[in-house]
Amino acid sequence: MRTHPKAVTVRFSEPEFVWIEAQARAHGEKPAEWVRSRCMEEAGWEGRLLAELRATQQLVAELVRELVVYTSGGNNGAAGEKIRSIFEKAAALRAK
User: Fold this and answer.
1) Of 92, 96, 95, 89, whose CA–CA distance to 62 is shortest?
2) pLDDT in the model for residue 59
3) Is residue 8 part of a domain?
4) Range of the domain at 87
5) Whole-number Å distance between alpha carbons of 87 and 59
6) In sequence order, what DSSP letters do the residues of 27-79 get, joined into one string?
7) Looking at the domain assignment, is residue 28 inside a domain?
8) Residue 16: which of 26, 33, 27, 31 has the closest Cα?
9) CA distance 56 to 48
């Protein structure tokens, strides 16, 4: 469930609203959802979110790879240090 605790009200002319309604319907969204999505895209938020998701995916992939090395008995010291490094990198990203 998505919650958005703050709201902004915008007024549109009848022709503008008809166009927005048509665009929203074409994308399977309600008009307010469609307008919000367009605002977020314009502000660049979706790009930032995707970048964060990609970074998280990369960290998880690195972690899994090192855990496999660690649990399979391969160079445990280096793998353990790499695992700690990955967690530190993740903590630094969360702190931003």
Assistant:
1) 89
2) 81
3) no
4) 55-95
5) 8
6) TT--HHHHHHHHHHHHHTHHHHHHHHHHHHHHHHHHHHHHHHHHHTTSSHHHH
7) yes
8) 31
9) 12
Query: Average pLDDT of 50-78?
Result: 77
Nearest to 37 by CA among 61, 2, 12, 69: 2
- Residue keyed to tokens 């503008």: 16
Confidence of residue 16 (pLDDT cuts 50, 70, 90): very high
- The Cα–Cα gap between 64 and 52 comes to 18
Between CA 54 and CA 13 the distance in angstroms is 40
Report the C-alpha gap between 86 and 84 in whole angstroms: 5
Q: How confident is the model at residue 1 (pLDDT cuts 50, 70, 90)?
A: very low
Average pLDDT, the chain: 80
Would you say residue 3 lies in a domain? no
